[in-house]
Design the sequence.
């Protein structure tokens, strides 16, 4: 019997928890040291051309999540609805909304609980599963993407928000921007000039270091997702996540009610003003920095 909560517009499957594996959690200790290294080496051996060093392999495995049922793998992609998607997948897997409240002093995300699922044994990162990379062959593979322009502007405002709070979140990048592109943290935040400098900083990081060293909130999405490895069965566009969630539910044989309403997590305060900081110069920079994203995920510049 399906019961819909009137206040949250979320639903609880009263029979869902009787499904095989639906309420299973991970109970074994996380592999450490040589065991974890072996998991990384397994991934590198399977995809040597893409996972050509340990840093790239570790980064991919650490941001890929699966439940104990192992029926799906979600590859996180910063600033593309990852918090909302993890909350939805929790609901779909366990039949109850993620209602745990949590504050983490090193994170400015108000819905940070969703990003602790992989550390609690509710979900598990592929880097903590023996031959985790092998799950991609059989599980439903999922990821989310966003229009590169909106994502870049959202990431910029998010970075500026961390400065306004004098937060340790993104502190290293704020210091590097201050030095490398002369970003003035007194006058440049949330401005068109500041966005141009932010994009100059990303371009500089791309030119001088590996993509996996760039913060995943503004790293090119192709470098986050590595679609040639993930081979996603379903790609959710942030512009229409509700359809993505419906598609997941259908593929997993857990259809949603027609009046289900999708919640939005970690909603940005500047989501409605993103065009205000765009200039012809910043648009050119975005097309250059995120050229691969426009092409691979079929977005118009």
Sequence:
């Amino acid at each position: 019997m399906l019961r819909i909560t009137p206040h949250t517009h979320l639903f609880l499957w009263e029979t869902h928890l009787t499904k095989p594996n639906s309420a299973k959690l991970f109970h074994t200790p996380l592999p450490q040291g040589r065991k974890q290294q072996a998991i990384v080496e397994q991934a590198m051996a399977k995809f040597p051309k893409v996972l050509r060093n340990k840093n790239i392999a570790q980064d991919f495995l650490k941001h890929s999540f699966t439940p104990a049922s192992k029926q799906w793998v979600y590859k996180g992609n910063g600033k593309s609805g990852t918090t909302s998607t993890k909350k939805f997948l929790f609901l779909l897997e366990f039949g109850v909304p993620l209602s745990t409240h949590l504050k983490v002093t090193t994170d400015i995300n108000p819905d940070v609980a969703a990003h602790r699922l992989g550390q609690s044994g509710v979900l598990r990162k592929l880097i903590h599963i023996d031959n985790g990379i092998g799950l991609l062959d059989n599980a439903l593979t999922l990821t989310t993407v966003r229009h590169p322009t909106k994502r870049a502007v959202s990431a910029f405002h998010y970075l500026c928000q961390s400065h306004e709070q004098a937060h340790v979140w993104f502190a290293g990048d704020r210091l590097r921007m201050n030095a490398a592109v002369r970003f003035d943290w007194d006058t440049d935040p949330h401005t068109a000039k500041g966005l141009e400098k932010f994009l100059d900083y990303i371009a500089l990081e791309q030119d001088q270091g590996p993509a996996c060293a760039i913060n995943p909130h503004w790293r090119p999405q192709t470098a986050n997702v590595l679609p040639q490895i993930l081979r996603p069965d379903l790609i959710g566009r942030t512009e229409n996540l509700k359809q993505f969630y419906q598609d997941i539910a259908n593929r997993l044989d857990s259809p949603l009610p027609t009046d289900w309403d999708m919640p939005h997590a970690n909603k940005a305060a500047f989501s409605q003003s993103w065009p205000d900081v765009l200039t012809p110069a910043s648009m050119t920079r975005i097309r250059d920095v995120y050229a691969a994203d426009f092409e691979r995920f079929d977005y118009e510049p």
Q: What stands out?
A: Confidence is low (pLDDT under 50) at residues 1-18. The chain is about 40% helix and 10% strand.
